[in-house]
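Appendix B. Raw example, untouched.
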Amino acid sequence: MSILGDLTPADFLSRVWQRETLMLQGALPDYVSAISPEQLAGLSLDSEVESRLIRKQDTDWLLQHGPFEEATFLDLPDRDWTLLVQAVDLWVDEVSSLFEAFDFLPRWRFDDIMVSYATPGGGAGPHFDQYDVFLVQVTGERHWRLGGEVDDDTQLVEGSEMRLVWSFEEHESWVMKPGDVLYVPPGVIHWGEAVTESLTYSVGFRSPSFSDMLGDLAIELMAQGRDGVYRDPTLLPSDDGLQISDAVVEEVQAQLRAIVDDPELVADWFARFMTQPRYPEAVEVTDEKRVARTRWGTYENGERVDE
């Protein structure tokens, strides 16, 4: 199955991917949820499953992390809350088949399929994510409002774990029905609120930060015994013993560049990095398997497997 309709994968990747939002109405008209709201709630009782409960209270959104107790759901009102469970594809095999609809994208870029159940009025407030996501409306209806991209002037709600923004200016709006798919690139403010009881699947993609990548690369260099040390350029006498000269800065840049100028080293590290399991401690239970290939080797769950 494909979600793009008349849009070719090449067109989507060159014009839309990580550039702009895209609504695909009726893209998955026959898709049936592999999990019920009751089963989703059951998963959230498990300590190995990552889950969150968000309740709207006036103009605030209150976040609570799982695992939950059955009594938690018995005490909830009829509206204004949503349950989100991460990586449901690892716990319910049938959910992972949804990845097939996105086979025009590299499989090693996939992160997980999050499933959210929402009562009328339930949602996570106006927020943004730093990763690509396809929002698949599976049951019920949800009103999505899209704002602009975050920038240095965007004010965040202090102390919020959900990247909530203080003010929201609507640019686009849709009421999504079953089968509709909405693509949201990184950094775009969005706000979804259930119109009716609904299930939404969020197909998310791995988008590590530069700091995460540099930190992991440093660890990999040390593990491989390739951790060199800084060397000075030709130094000149200086009247200012505190000054770091432009020549020193340029030498530091050159030494760091020399590391990443080795394509085999970078490919080996990046393949290991991007195939690390989401939940390493639960691999035996989830049978999580992440695979990638470079022209030098094949990798699975952070390890090279063809040596």
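End of appendix B.
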